[in-house]
Design goal:
2 domains, 311 residues, alpha+beta, 5-stranded mixed β-sheet, 5-stranded antiparallel β-sheet
C-alpha cells in the first residue's frame, strides 16, 4: 500500500513520463509544433527530442502536417481520431491520437503515439501474396495460366445466370488444336507445351477483359463471350482462328512450327441451363469443323439455331 501511495504522489516530470513509454510519444500543440517527445521518436526521423522541440511536424512530413490539421478539426467537432497508419520513409507506423484539453474542454494539443509495424505489414503482405498464389494455382492451369476446367465452369455458370436475369446474350467457343497429338509425337512434349502457351497468350491478346478463357482438355480450350450474339461470336471466332494460324514457333532443330485450330460456336438458347449445355453444342460444332477439313469455324445448325435465326 505504501508503494502504491508513493507512486501516485511522486513528482514525475513530463520528460521522464515520456521516456517510460514503450513506443514513440509526441506532444503537439494546435500548430503542429513539438512540445515534448521521447527518444523512441529518433527511430522515425533520425533527430533527438532536443532538436524537435518547437519545430512543426509539417517540416518533416507534409502528410503528417495535414493529418494534424484534420485531427483538430475533428476534436473541435467532438469526434475521436481513429487509429490509422502512415509511412515515414521506409517505416510504416500505426498512429494513435488523443486530444489534450484545457479546463473548458478546448483541445489545446494532442498526444500522439507511433508504433513501428513495418515488420508486421511485411509479413501481412507476404501472406497475402502467398494466398494469392495459392488461389491462382487452385483456379488456373499451371501451363497456360488460363482457368482450369472447374474454375471455368463455376465462373461461366454464374455469368450465364446473370445473363438470363438481365436478358442479355452470350456465346461460347470450343477450340481444339488440329493434329496436336502428331505435334507431340513428332517434336516432343516440350514443343507441344510451348505451342499451348503461345495459343493461350494469343487468346488473351484477342479477347476482351470481360471474356473468360479456360483450358478444358489437353489441347482444348473454351471461351465464354458475355453480351455476344451468334453473329458476333462467329466473327470473333474467325479472327481468333486466323490469329492462331499465323502463330509461328521457331525451333533450333525443327525450324518453323505452325498450328491450326478448329472452332465450334454456340450461342444462348433456352435449353442452355448451365455451361455444360452450351459447351456441348459448341463441342458438336467443333467436331463438324474437324469433319469439314479442320482449320475452320463452324456453328452447328441444330433446330434451336434455326429457331434463333428466324426470330
Amino acid at each position: 500500500m505504501t508503494q502504491k501511495y508513493d507512486l501516485l504522489h511522486a513528482s514525475i516530470s513530463l520528460e521522464a513520463l515520456f521516456e517510460s513509454m514503450p513506443v514513440a510519444m509526441v506532444l503537439l500543440d494546435r500548430e503542429g509544433r513539438h512540445v515534448a517527445a521521447n527518444h523512441a521518436v529518433t527511430a522515425f526521423n533520425g533527430l533527438p527530442p532536443s532538436e524537435l522541440i518547437g519545430r512543426k511536424v509539417a517540416e518533416f512530413s507534409k502528410e503528417s502536417g495535414e493529418n494534424i490539421e484534420r485531427d483538430f478539426r475533428m476534436f473541435d467537432e467532438g469526434l475521436e481520431v481513429p487509429v490509422h497508419e502512415i509511412q515515414i520513409g521506409e517505416i510504416i507506423c500505426q498512429v494513435s491520437v488523443k486530444a489534450v484539453r484545457d479546463a473548458s474542454g478546448f483541445a489545446v494539443g494532442e498526444m500522439v503515439s507511433l508504433t513501428d509495424i513495418t515488420r508486421q505489414k511485411k509479413i501481412e503482405r507476404e501472406l497475402a501474396e502467398a494466398n494469392a498464389k495459392l488461389s491462382f494455382l487452385a483456379n488456373h492451369d499451371p501451363l497456360t495460366a488460363t482457368l482450369n476446367v472447374r474454375a471455368y465452369h463455376e465462373l461461366c455458370d454464374r455469368m450465364m445466370g446473370l445473363a438470363f436475369r438481365n436478358n442479355t446474350s452470350f456465346s461460347v467457343l470450343f477450340i481444339d488444336l488440329d493434329h496436336f497429338k502428331c505435334v507431340n509425337d513428332t517434336y516432343g512434349h516440350d514443343v507441344g507445351d510451348c505451342i499451348l502457351r503461345s495459343v493461350a497468350e494469343c487468346m488473351r491478346n484477342s479477347c476482351r477483359k470481360c471474356d473468360v478463357i479456360g483450358r478444358v482438355g489437353g489441347e482444348e480450350f473454351s471461351v465464354f463471350l458475355p453480351e455476344t450474339d451468334n453473329q458476333g461470336a462467329l466473327v470473333f471466332a474467325e479472327k481468333l482462328r486466323s490469329s492462331i494460324e499465323q502463330l509461328s514457333l521457331k525451333h533450333d532443330i525443327f525450324g518453323e512450327i505452325r498450328i491450326t485450330t478448329s472452332i465450334g460456336v454456340a450461342s444462348k438458347m433456352k435449353h442452355h441451363k448451365a455451361i455444360a449445355d452450351i459447351q456441348r453444342d459448341a463441342d458438336h460444332a467443333m467436331y463438324h469443323a474437324k469433319k469439314e477439313g479442320r482449320n475452320r469455324v463452324c456453328c452447328l445448325h441444330l433446330p434451336c439455331y434455326v429457331e434463333q435465326a428466324m426470330s
